[in-house]
């Protein structure tokens, strides 16, 4: 029942089960009960039953850890049970939630997609503002330097920028309409993009 009560969850350096950081940047549901929370200090998973957080962070000694602690965006692919993590400066991370080891931050395997200036099929930028999955299953990413489409078969990216007609390269938000057009929010207005 509604009580009007507000509960605060803050980082406590003495409590390993508190949230990773007080600067919260993204939040999404993990099923009907739990939450994934992106912070400026890593990724947190909140278990509503125990009221405890499990925290994931970048570990320079573990290449399978998060690529960066500053999380900018999150997206849960319900079809594949994949958590997509957009970082600020570390590129795009992918965590397969079908792998039971994902529950342990020390054992979880995170796949990284980073910008490579020598590879035009890599993601265009390592700072990911937003992640959106269209009804056809394609994954779209808004970055600081353009719109990207991820191909899950080839694991490569197609890039769209001002040269392709975008009003600005900083794509901050993505939404799909009934007709399959993508609506993009940018630093220089709103754009409708037909991906077909």
Summarize the structure.
The protein is 0% helix and 43% strand.
Descriptive notes:
With 196 residues, the chain is mostly beta strands. 0% of the residues lie in helices and 43% in strands. The chain has no helices and 15 strands. The chain has strands spanning 24-30, 34-39, 42-47, 52-56, 71-77, 82-87, 92-96, 110-113, 128-133, 139-143, 146-151, 156-160, 171-176, 182-186, 189-193. It has a four-stranded antiparallel beta sheet with strand order 1-2-3-4, with no helix packed on it. A four-stranded antiparallel beta sheet has the order 5-6-7-8, with no helix packed on it. It is globular and about 50 Å long.
Overall shape: it is globular
For the largest beta sheet, what order do the strands appear in spatially? 1-2-3-4
Beta strands, count: 15
Structural class: mainly beta
Low-confidence stretches: none
SSE order, one letter for each helix or strand:
EEEEEEEEEEEEEEE
Mean residue pLDDT: 95
State Rg. 17 Å
Percent strand: 35-45%
Q: Main beta sheet: strand number and arrangement?
A: 4 strands, antiparallel
Number of helices: 0
Helix content: under 10%
User: In angstroms, what separates the terminal alpha carbons?
Assistant: 47 Å
């Amino acid at each position: 029942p509604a009580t009007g009560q507000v509960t605060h969850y803050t980082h406590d350096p003495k409590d390993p089960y508190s949230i990773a950081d007080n600067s919260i940047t993204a939040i999404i549901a993990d099923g009907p009960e739990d939450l994934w929370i992106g912070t400026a200090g890593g990724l947190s998973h909140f278990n509503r039953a125990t009221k405890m957080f499990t925290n994931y962070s970048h570990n320079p000694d573990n290449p399978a850890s998060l690529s960066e602690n500053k999380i900018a965006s999150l997206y849960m692919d319900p079809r594949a049970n994949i958590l997509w993590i957009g970082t600020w400066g570390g590129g795009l991370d992918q965590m397969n939630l079908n792998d039971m080891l994902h529950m342990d931050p020390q054992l979880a395997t995170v796949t990284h997609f980073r910008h490579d200036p020598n590879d035009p099929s890599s993601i265009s930028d390592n700072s990911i503002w937003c992640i959106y999955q269209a009804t056809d299953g394609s994954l779209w990413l808004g970055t600081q330097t353009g719109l990207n489409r991820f191909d899950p078969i080839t694991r490569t990216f197609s890039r769209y920028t001002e040269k392709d007609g975008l009003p600005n390269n900083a794509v901050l938000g993505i939404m799909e309409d009934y007709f399959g057009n993508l609506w993009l929010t940018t630093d220089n207005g709103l754009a409708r993009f037909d991906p077909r």
